[in-house]
Design brief:
Two copies of one chain form a homodimer. Chain A is mostly helical. Chain A contains ten helices and no strands. In chain A, helix 1 packs across helix 6 (about 100-105) and helix 7 (about 115-145) runs antiparallel to helix 8 (about 150-165). The radius of gyration of chain A is 19 Å and the shape is globular. Chains A, B: It comes from Bifidobacterium reuteri DSM 23975. Chains A, B: One of its GO terms (molecular function) is transcription cis-regulatory region binding.
């Protein structure tokens, strides 16, 4: 059949439509029928031919998102004009910017009310995400810009605290109390020799997480 | 029937037998039949008359355990010879001692591999446990022994980091790397004006969490 001649084109269209709907309506409120309606020329069966469930669509989007984040990190890591600390700040600044792919992550947050989704995310934040930050911190240790005795601990804490402790869905907070929380992280990270949060990044991080609450 | 004349006596016997078995065999490997066998004079039906499931027995043990922890806190809070910092250290020292009730908590740790149990515990560590630590920290702020601008943040971090980040089941660690992690918490808490971890408490905390791994 013609529509299966280029399955990767169909899959990309499904993923883009689903991503747009997850951003607009949230993950939980989006149905496979909504994706059918948005695309206009595919049946529900055709979508299930490519993805066994709505969750499978999100999994594919997440792994693409992770590839994208790793790609950004690799680009920044390759720059020879930046210290480790500069790179850590640059990458963290991207992590708290209102990019399209961060908006998608944000739209998927209500999923964390589901225990299985929460357990999966905790595992990701605990086991995988620290490995994303660690090479940058280690470069900073080597070039002297991040004078820490705690590179692994810092990587684990950045992953855990900025993804779990800063989320207002877990720890409800006004914008002012979120800023106080970010300042607390900044003071603690500086104390262990990882001064990633300057005043500008404190404000940007606060604004980013505060925007989650009003959604 | 005679055995129901004093249901609280029967319930206490069931709870004590279950607690002993959870400590000896672990929660997952204990069956209701094991509890029947241990007690000798009660049928499985009689146990289900008092508790609808093994999980209900654990829930009751946990709430009794929490009442016990709150009782200890209230006793320590009532002492007029101690500063807030002394009280925080005294209570944290009890929290990392090999008491009977800590052994029970430890025996129940494999439950956290279950997503629903993990989600329940994360909620407890996030929403409830900080309220346990906060009044002590606030007293330390008032009497000058805990010179922090971050009392709530410190209560949340103690609850999250010492219950999640220090557990080797989530973040595998040798005894040496656990000590390094506790030293990292000590440095960060001191930096925000909450110098709860002195050298003695660093060693005791390390030994306590390191013992979890070999079980």
């Amino acid at each position: 059949m013609a529509r299966n001649a280029h399955p990767e084109v169909t899959e990309r269209r499904i993923l883009e439509a689903a991503r747009d709907l997850f951003v607009e309506k949230g993950y939980e409120k989006t149905t496979v029928q909504n994706i059918v309606d948005r695309l206009g020329d595919l049946s529900k069966g055709a979508i299930y031919h490519h993805f066994k469930s709505k969750e499978a669509i999100l999994d594919r989007l997440n792994s693409a998102d992770w590839d994208y984040s790793q790609g950004l990190r690799d680009q920044i890591m390759a720059r020879e004009d930046l210290t480790g600390l500069d790179k850590l700040r640059a990458l963290f600044t991207l992590a708290v910017s209102n990019t399209e792919h961060n908006k998608l992550n944000q739209a998927a947050l209500p999923m964390l009310n589901d225990p299985v989704c929460l357990a999966n995310n905790m595992h990701f934040w605990t086991a995988d995400l620290p490995e994303h930050w660690l090479p940058i911190i280690e470069q900073g240790v080597a070039d002297g810009s991040i004078p820490t005795e705690y590179p692994r601990e810092a990587a684990e804490l950045i992953a855990l605290l900025t993804n779990y402790w800063l989320l207002p869905m877990f720890y409800p907070a006004s914008s002012a109390s979120l800023r106080h929380r970010v300042q607390c992280i900044a003071a603690m990270m500086s104390a262990i020799g990882v001064p990633v949060f300057d005043d500008k990044l404190i404000e940007q991080t606060t604004d980013f997480y505060a925007s989650f609450d009003s959604e």
